[in-house]
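User: I need a structural model of GST N-terminal domain-containing protein from Microvirga arsenatis for a docking pre-check later this week. Nothing fancy, just the predicted structure tokens so I can convert them on my end. Input:
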Amino acid sequence: MRLYVSPTSPYARLACVMCLEARLEGLEIVILDPWQNPPELLNHNPACRVPALVVDDGDGNDPLAITESLLIADFAARRSGESDRLWFKDDSERQIGGICLGIIDAAAAIMAGRMVTSGSVNEIAFDSSLVARRRQAAIQRSLDRMEALLGARDEALGAQPGIAAFLPVIVVEYLQMRFGSAFESADRSQLASLVATLRDRPALASTRPLFTKFIPYDGAAAQ
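Assistant: Understood. Predicted structure tokens for GST N-terminal domain-containing protein:
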């Protein structure tokens, strides 16, 4: 079983964290750069995007490739035997998850705009455009909404963490990597508390943006 990821993609990180938490047997994590159109990734995902999970049933059939982060996360949760913990437990958690994914989409759109404008995600000329400013405003509003939604749920999410708890950490650390302190706010204490509680959990600590290797570990769900 191989999971193709890049060291910066928040979508790939979500899939990676969920697969690690699920302790999928025989999991191999392959780190690559999808912008280089690597043949191995293209062979399994014609869109040449990460994440992509390739599953071999061992019976001689062609490997099955599962793409898109939520579908891989769902696969991992169902295979884990701990789907009640790892997957969304109720509609309130789904609401938090939706806001997180919206933030990731908005941030990724800004990165795509930078690439189109200058050929580099580090060149920020695009950020002053109307499109980018709208995405930035959406991110700020969404972070404030997530703070309000976490409220009393912060402690519960941290106690039995699943996808709804992992996503806020992935969001915050991706924004920090790409935008520095631009989206930080002292008024979001609930969000800061959740991130502080979970950021050193092995599945999250070992997949922090720009990780360059993967060190297997046991007992992810218990730590």
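Before docking, keep this in mind: The longest strand covers residues 2-5.
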